[in-house]
Amino acid sequence: MQKIHQKGFTLLEIVLVVTLIAILAGIVIIAINPSKQLADSRNTQRKADVNTILNAVYQYAIDNNGALPASVPNIASCSSSVTTISKNEICKTGGLCVGLVDLSSLTNNGRYIAFLPYDPKSSTTNGTGYLICKDGVTNRVTVAAKNSENDIIISATK
Questions:
Q1: Domain residue spans in the chain?
Q2: Cα separation of 45 and 128, whole Å?
Q3: What is the torsional sign of CA 64, 82, 93, 46?
Q4: What is the mean pLDDT of residues 55-79?
């Protein structure tokens, strides 16, 4: 009598391997947390955009004997302490939410900035997603990202 040797895997072995791969994939996806990683990358872009806008405003001021663009709203409550205010309070105070601000003087001929950056997650039909104001006393300009994620406040004052 001859022994028959079958090549291949049993159904039980295949099911166990597939289950093990699924469990490992689930653990890896949870550990990586792609939604947090994406939110962090968008926040990094917002930080860069805030600094870009602020630098363009100050380059404009340097070329115009310290005069800021006329469209930047003059708000007394706008100060360097804005970073300690929660993201929702920034808009409630009226200090930074003053409607759409025309900063075309910065983008004319691409001298200070080629184009105003848009928030990575906002639509282009309702502004850029960034807020700007100046303190009437010190002429300090604050730029903030109103759509930041993970409860991070993104603003810069110069």
A1: 11-157
A2: 13
A3: positive
A4: 82
